[in-house]
Specification:
The structure holds two protein chains of two kinds.
Chain A lengths: L1 H8 L2 H17 L2 H25 L13 H28 L2 H32 L8 H22 L4 H27 L20 H35 L7
Helix pairs in contact in A: 3-8, 4-5, 4-7, 4-8, 5-6, 5-8, 6-7
Chain B lengths: L25 H42 L1
Classes of the chains: A mainly alpha, B mainly alpha.
Chain lengths: ~250, ~70
C-alpha cells in the first residue's frame, strides 16, 4: 500500500508528492464524486473496524490495547498530510500571494490539527498500558506536542486574526515553522533515545502478518477521511473568499 | 546508534494461546475509539454549522446587492 510505503521508507520527497496529489484531486472534485467518496470511505471504515477486531490478532505483550495502534498511526499520517499541505500552501501564499493557496493552507492546518489531537489523546491511552504512564517526555511525543501547539497557534490566529494581509503573512510564517518540525518528529525515534516503538521504520522489526490488513485499511480509510474533511473545510474557505470579494471593506474572523 | 535502541519495541508478535492480562486494557481501548469518533463527528458538526453560517452571510450580501 502506498501509505505504508511512505511511512516505511520515510522518504520526504514521496510525502510531498502525495501532498501535491491531494491538492490536484481537490481541484477536480465534483459534488457527485464527493458523495461516492463518502460512501466508499464509510465502507472502508467498516472494513477497517472488522479487520481490527475480528482479523488482527491480540498482541503478545500489550494485549487488546495494542489495537489503538490501528487508529493512532494512521491518524499521525493524516496529521502529517494536514500540516504538510498547510506548510506548502503557506509557502505558495508567501511567494505568489495566492488566495486559494492560503485558503487551502487554512483548511489543511485545521484538519491536521484535528488529527494531531486524536494522536495526542489516543497515544497516552495506549501508553498507560504499555509504559505504565500516560505521558513521558519522549522525543517523538515532545516533538509531536510541539507541532500540535505550533499549529494550534496558527489556527487561533486564523480564527481570531481576521483576513488582513499582515495577519495572513504572520500565520503563514507560523505554518512554515511548524513544517520544519515534521521531519524532526519522523526521525526523532531513530536519532534520539526514547520509549516510543519503532515498528514502522526501516530499522523496526515489523508487525505480525495478521496485523497488516487492519493497518493497511487504517491508512487508506484515514487518508480518505482526511480528503473528505479537507474538501469540506476548503469549500468553506472558498465561500469566505467570495464573501470578502463582495464586501472588501470588512474582515471576517 | 547507541545501545539504548535495544530497549525499544521493534516488533509486535501475535499471541499464541489464551493469555490473562495483568492490567485490563479494554477500558483504554474503548476510550481511544470513543475519542476518535467523538472528535470526527464533533468536527463534522462544527463544519456544518460554519458552512451554514458562511452561506447565509453570502446569500444576505448577494440579496442586498441585488436590491440596491
Amino acid at each position: 500500500m502506498q501509505a505504508i510505503y511512505l511511512v516505511h521508507r520515510g522518504q520526504l520527497c514521496s510525502f510531498f508528492s502525495a501532498v501535491g496529489q491531494v491538492g490536484l484531486y481537490l481541484r477536480t472534485m465534483q459534488p457527485g464524486r464527493f458523495h461516492y467518496l463518502v460512501i466508499l470511505t464509510a465502507l472502508l471504515w467498516c472494513g477497517m473496524l472488522y479487520a481490527i477486531f475480528f482479523i488482527a490478532p491480540t498482541e503478545l505483550q500489550m494485549g487488546v490495547v495494542q489495537k489503538i495502534f490501528y487508529i493512532h498511526v494512521p491518524s499521525a499520517y493524516a496529521m502529517y498530510l494536514g500540516f504538510g499541505v498547510c506548510g506548502l500552501g503557506s509557502l505558495l501564499f508567501l511567494l505568489r500571494r495566492d488566495d486559494k493557496a492560503d485558503a487551502l493552507a487554512a483548511a489543511a492546518g485545521e484538519v491536521g490539527l484535528v488529527f494531531a489531537w486524536v494522536v495526542l489523546i489516543t497515544g497516552p491511552l495506549w501508553a498507560r498500558k504499555a509504559w505504565g504512564t500516560y505521558w513521558t517526555w519522549d522525543p517523538r511525543l515532545t516533538t509531536t506536542l510541539l507541532a500540535a501547539l505550533v499549529f494550534s497557534a496558527y489556527w487561533v490566529l486564523r480564527v481570531l486574526g481576521g483576513y488582513g494581509e499582515i495577519e495572513r503573512k504572520f500565520a503563514a510564517l507560523i505554518a512554515l515553522l511548524g513544517l520544519v518540525d515534521l521531519p524532526i518528529i519522523h526521525y526523532s525515534v531513530q536519532r534520539w533515545r526514547g520509549q516510543h516503538p519503532t515498528v514502522i521504520t526501516a530499522k523496526g522489526g515489523g508487525i505480525a502478518s495478521g496485523m497488516v490488513p487492519a493497518l493497511s485499511l487504517g491508512f487508506i480509510s484515514m487518508t480518505l477521511l482526511f480528503v473528505i474533511l479537507l474538501s469540506l473545510r476548503y469549500r468553506i474557505e472558498k465561500n469566505q473568499i467570495a464573501l470578502r470579494a463582495l464586501r472588501p471593506s470588512e474582515e471576517y474572523g | 546508534m547507541d545501545n539504548n535502541d535495544n530497549s525499544r519495541s521493534t516488533s509486535f508478535q501475535a499471541v499464541t494461546g489464551p493469555r490473562q492480562q495483568d492490567v485490563p486494557g479494554g477500558p483504554l481501548l474503548i476510550a481511544a475509539y470513543a475519542v476518535l469518533w467523538a472528535v470526527v463527528f464533533g468536527y463534522v458538526f462544527y463544519l456544518s454549522r460554519l458552512q451554514r453560517k458562511v452561506e447565509n452571510e453570502l446569500e444576505d450580501v448577494r440579496r442586498s446587492q441585488k436590491s440596491t
